[in-house]
Amino acid sequence: MRETSSTPPEHVEIARPHRELLDQVLDKWSLQVLNELCERPSRFNELRRAIPTVTQKSLTATLRRLERNGIVERTVTSTRPVAVEYDITPLGKTLREPIDALLDWAHENMADIERARSRFDEEG
Length: 124
Prior knowledge:
Pfam family, one: HxlR
GO molecular function, one term: DNA binding
Organism: Nocardiopsis alba
CATH topology: Arc Repressor Mutant, subunit A
Shape: globular
InterPro entries: HTH_HxlR, WH-like_DNA-bd_sf, WH_DNA-bd_sf
Keywords: DNA-binding, Transcription, Transcription regulation
Radius of gyration: 18 Å
Number of helices: 6
């Protein structure tokens, strides 16, 4: 049995399943969908209006990936016409803190990142 501890391991292996999950959860459409769903459950067309640059195909694929990973749940209502609503799951809600930490880091370091990009581009 694996020992658990509150301190992080010294070495974290980033295996294929980890990379695949991070690619699926941290892409630009997923982050925007999660941001919307953290506020409230939404129907597909509400998400399309909230994220006007996403195509129907990309939004569908994004929602399916997030649902497959247990981050988003899809509920079909028995109303007429039938409606589909998407909501963030309890597992999905646990992403808020680490994503906010990454966004805070990016915000705090953006000036240094932009300078590094400029240096790199000038040398290239």
